[in-house]
Amino acid sequence: MLYKLSFTTSHRYETNQPGINVPLILQSGSTTVELDAKIDTGSSYCIFERLYGDRLGLDIESGTPQRISTVTGSFLTYAHEVTLSVLGIEGTAVVYFAHDENFTRNVLGRQGWLERVRLGLIDYDSRLYLSDYNDAA
Q1: Which among 25, 35, 74, 101 could disulfide-bond with 69, CB atoms 3.0 to 4.6 Å apart, if both were Cys?
Q2: Total of domains in the chain
Q3: Residue 4 domain-assigned?
């Protein structure tokens, strides 16, 4: 059986970097920050460096605390609602900012992002295809 999907955006990612990085914009009120994040289908949450929450003017510790567990340990984050825009697809999401200033990863996980998009990936071509989940397929 043949299945077909359509996508509104195509993005070529760099293969000389670990992971699949995409550019994104975080917004809180009228303040925005631009950064790159890795797509992480194994991550339950969207997690960002504390630095970006600070740049948005957020009081990091005022967010809901959430301990994130990994195979190597756990770390503390704080939840905040922001606008998240990836390759032109925008929406409000609860994301998590690391408590530790030395945390240096930015990941787009399932809740808040992956659950809202239709994603296609052809790693051989270094090509990512993306659409809002609610766009016509």
Answers
A1: 74
A2: 1
A3: no
